[in-house]
Structure formats: C-alpha cells, structure tokens
Specification:
The chain is α/β, with parallel strands linked by helices. 35% of the residues lie in helices and 17% in strands. The chain has three domains: 302 residues, 3-Layer(aba) Sandwich (Rossmann fold); 119 residues, Domain 2, N(10)-formyltetrahydrofolate synthetase (2-Layer Sandwich), CATH 3.30.1510.10; 83 residues, Roll (Formyltetrahydrofolate synthetase, domain 3).
Length: 556
C-alpha cells in the first residue's frame, strides 16, 4: 500500500470554492490561502442551527505505542455519513510541529481517510500557530520590559512571574532557562522557560473564545504573577490585550479544507489533551454545527482526558452536547493493555484482546456516566484476525454497547458505511444533553476527587503541600468556581504511565497547580507532566526529505 503522503499528493483535490458550496458558503465569504485552503468569517455561525445539528464526539481507549487512529476514524466516519447523503462536516484540531517531527506524526488521518492538502496542514498551514506563538511571546516581552522600566514599573516581583515563552517544537533544553543576561541593558535576570505552543494559554484561550471581544477580554484576564506587595498582576495591567488580539485577527477564523473524498473539514486550534483541554475551538465547532446536519469532532487521547474535558469544560462553556460518542480501539492496543509485549502485538492472541477489554470497559463506563450513548469502533489493521475481532465484539455485547469495524484506512467511506449508519441511528434517538461530572459550585478539591474516582477509577487523591498552598491562594483570588483541566499522563488511567490496562487500588497525586485565568480553568498537575516535551531517541524528522521539485517524503 502507498504511504500516507503518496496517497495524499496523488489525490484529485478540488478547488476550495467547490467544497464551500457543499456547505452553502458563498465564494465572497472565503479568504483563500492558495487554491485549497480558506479562512471562514465568524458571521457564518447561527445559534438556531447549532441547536438543530447532530454533534458526534470521537474519543478512544488509553493510547499505546501501537497507535489507535482516532483521527483516521473521525475522517472516515465523516466520509461515511456524506456517502449516506447527509450534509456533513468534520471539525478537527491543527497539528503541532512537535509531534510531526517527533514521534506521533501529523494529525491529518491516514491511508484513504485523510484530510488534504496533508503536507500543508501538518506543517505551517495558514499560520495560526505562528500567530499564537507571537501573541504569547509579545506578552512575555512586555512583562520583562515592565520589570526593566524605571518610569512605568508595576513592581512585578520577577520571582513570581508564571508566564513563559513558547515555541512549536519539542525542545527539552528550553524547559528551564535563565533569561535577561548581558548586564543592565539585557534586563533583570530571572528563571523562566518555554512551553510548546500547543500548551500555551493563548492556544487554550483561542479555543475557548466565542468571538473577538471575548478573546480580547480573556487575554486581559491572564494572570502573570504578583507585585512585591503580593498584589496579583494581569495582562490588562500591561495594556497587552489589544496588541495580542491584533496578532490573532486572522487566527481566530476557522480553516476550511477537505477529505480525500471531498467532505468539508474545519480545522482550528490544537491544544494537547494531557496538559490542556485537547479539543478544537468552540468557534469552529459551533460554525460546523451551523453549516451541517452532522458534525464529527474528536477529543485528544483517551476518554479520561480529551472527552472528559470536552464535556466538562468546552461543552459547558459552548452550550453544546454530543448526541453520540464513538470510542476508538484497535486489536493491537487491546492486546497491549492485556499484557502482551509491544514487539509481539502482530501475533494472534484473542485471550490478550479479552484481557485488554478492561481498559475499554472503563472508558465506556466513563461516557455512560455522562448519560451519552456509546458505540465502539475498531480501527482495522491487516494483522487483525477473525477470532480477535470476535473477542472484541463479544466483549462489547457483554457491555451492551454497539460495535462496528471501521476500515476507512484501506477503503475510505466504503469501509465506514456500517459505522455511519449506526451513528446516524443513535443520533436520531437521543434527546437529552450530557450530565457533567461535577457542578461548578463544588470546591476545587471536590471536582478533582470526582474526576479521579469517577473517571480514572482512583481510590483517592493526595495533595502535596505546595499544591495545597497554591489551591488556597487561587481560591482566595476568586477562582474556586472554575472547572478543572487535569494535566495527566495519557499513557495510563492513573498518573503512572507504567500502569496500562485498568489499574485498581491506586491514588493520584496533585503535585502543583497552574492557573489559566484567561482560558477560564485551573490546571491540577499530576505526576511528572511536562509542558515542554522532548524529541525521541530517533525523531521522525530524521526520515524526512524534500527533492528539488519540492516533493516531500517521510511525512505522515
């Protein structure tokens, strides 16, 4: 079979005006970036149409090194619904260059369930990440400039400054640095560091904002640190929000592209789900729901991370609720969770599949606690055997949930028609919105406990002394009614990445807190989570190349 990029570059890609027509978008409404990409105006969103649309959330079991293919199924499902004659759009996140050049690869799907132009989407796209990076770093520059100023100094204590610079690359050497060296002209030396752009609060704010005014207000609410007298300092105290909003003037608009089969796709924003909310923007999701009868979207990593945050944070703010949830699994991943070593996952082992079902069961239970219907879809690989698939199907039958094999990777929409039919039937039967895990009036500690015990399956939560001190401070600042955005490893239901499957009798530890006052949530940090990842031993970048004609190889 051809590689992903070979399939993508050989596709019969249609002019973006033709794709827009499928959604009733006029040519004059498009801000084109070449022939195959366009920005869309925010005026395309209509609240009444949002309420009438069918939103479908795609999530997954706990990720494994073998990969699950959540985006591939999301795209295949959108193509399948389109093939059934339904007016459909997929709404997805933008890829980060860190994973693209690191280990995970891009975020445009795979095989014959891809979004195109794949190489553009996985690289610089329309410049949204660049705008986020510049807005983030503008604020950092304004902070250091104010600390240095003799006439307009706010008295910011450099030791309390929480704001870091960002760059869209995995670069562990920038996690912790000393800035402003070089004498008096270089500023006030202090400890700081970099986050990866997807972990910047600017990214979170973009994806939580409803319009430009809301974006600007949220920028102003960013908590920077304290003065020497202990008074909190916000970005608005530096008059930073206006200039930051200017840099985001184009980035706030969703991007329109297409699948290999010509299904419209909106791509916008890209926060990670293990350290942020892990979903595309509220603006893009609501716009998609305004333009189509069926909207397929996804949330990062497993249901314990992306789906939990999609529902408890994003959906709560946006006033939306999915009508169906697809949980993606693979035979290989289930065997891994069943205790089979990574190197032997290609060997047939139906017993390991059955043993690994415990992880899937936990995620199914999580979605059911939200009061939403679930369908499990296997992302099919050629190595999957009839007995292994039968073991998975039998497990789903025991749980009382729908099951469908998705072969969109190899067959496109032809391989996802059954899944599309079942999802359509589920959507038509659901009338009730989801039930949140916690109330906003709950204390922060209560919210964390409800997530840890009800979703992760933990027996309890421990707080370090540092975390308790920070929690007391943030509650005293008026943030006690904020939702919580748990920063936790994606590799386990627990906070220990070495515990696959369905761990039992474990506790999780809140190491410390971060505040995203502009985005509107508190971030409890569990275990050893980092906001600036590093490259793997053999980065994907080492296998990429470009010839004299600009043809790219090795990108996936």
């Amino acid at each position: 079979m051809h590689t992903d990029i070979e399939i993508a570059t050989a596709a019969d890609i249609k002019p973006i005006e033709n794709i827009a027509q499928k959604l009733g978008i006029l040519k004059d409404d498009l801000e084109c970036y070449g022939k195959y990409k366009a920005k869309l105006p925010l005026s395309l969103t209509e609240s009444k149409k949002v309420d009438e649309s069918n939103l479908i959330l795609v999530t997954a079991i706990t990720p494994t090194p073998a990969g699950e293919g959540k985006t591939t199924i999301s795209i295949g499902l959108a193509d399948g619904l389109s093939a059934l004659g339904k007016k459909t759009v997929a709404v997805l996140r933008e890829p980060s260059l860190g994973p693209v050049f690191g280990i995970k690869g891009g975020a445009a799907g795979g095989g014959y369930s891809q979004v195109i132009p794949m190489e553009d989407i996985n690289l610089h796209f329309t410049g949204d990440f660049n705008a986020i990076e510049k807005a983030n770093n503008l604020l950092a520059a304004l902070i250091d400039n104010n600390i240095q100023s003799k006439t307009r100094n706010l008295g910011i204590d450099p030791r309390t400054v929480l704001w870091k610079r960002c760059i869209d690359m995995n670069d562990r050497s920038l996690r912790n640095i000393i800035s402003s060296l070089g004498g008096k002209g270089g500023g006030m030396p202090r400890e700081t560091g970099f986050n990866i752009t997807a972990a910047s609060e600017i990214m979170a704010i973009l994806c939580m904002s409803k319009d430009p005014d809301d974006l600007k207000e949220r920028f102003g609410n960013i908590y920077i640190g304290d003065t020497f007298q202990g008074k909190p300092v916000y970005a608005r105290d530096l008059n930073a929000e206006g200039a930051m909003a200017i840099l985001m003037n184009d980035a706030i608009k969703p991007n329109l592209v297409q699948t290999l089969e010509g299904t419209p796709v909106l791509i916008h924003g890209g926060p990670f789900a293990n350290i942020a909310q892990g979903t595309n923007s509220i603006i893009a999701t609501r716009m998609g729901m305004s333009l189509a009868d069926y909207v397929v979207t996804e949330a990062g990593f497993g249901a314990d991370l992306g789906a939990e945050k999609f529902l408890n944070i994003k959906s709560r703010y946006a006033g939306i609720s999915p009508k169906a949830v697809v949980i993606v699994a693979t035979i290989r991943a289930l065997k891994y969770h069943g205790g089979k070593p990574l190197k032997t996952l290609g060997e047939e082992d139906a017993q390991a599949v059955t043993a690994g079902m415990s992880n899937l069961e936990r995620h199914v239970e999580t979605i059911q606690k939200f009061g939403l219907p679930v369908i499990v879809s296997i992302n099919k690989f050629t190595s999957d055997t009839t007995d292994e698939i039968a073991a998975l199907q039998a497990g789903c039958k025991r749980m009382g949930v729908e099951f469908s094999v998705s072969n969109g990777f190899a067959e496109g929409s032809k391989g996802t028609l059954e899944l599309a039919e079942k999802v359509k039937d589920i959507c038509e039967g659901l009338k009730k919105p989801f039930v949140p895990t916690y109330d906003l009036e709950d204390s922060i500690e209560e919210k964390i406990n409800k997530i840890a015990t009800g979703i992760y399956g933990a027996s309890g939560v421990n707080f370090t002394d540092k975390a308790r001190q920070q929690l007391k401070k943030f509650e005293s600042m008026g943030y006690g009614n904020y939702p919580v955005c748990m920063a936790k490893t994606q590799k386990s239901l627990s906070d220990n990445e070495k515990l696959p499957g369905r761990p039992e009798n474990f506790t999780v530890t809140i190491r410390e807190f971060e505040i995203a006052a502009g985005a509107g949530f508190l971030i409890p940090i569990l275990g050893n989570m980092l906001r600036m990842p590093g490259l793997p031993e053999t980065p994907a970048a080492e296998n990429m190349d470009m010839d004299n004609n600009g043809s790219i190889t090795g990108l996936s």
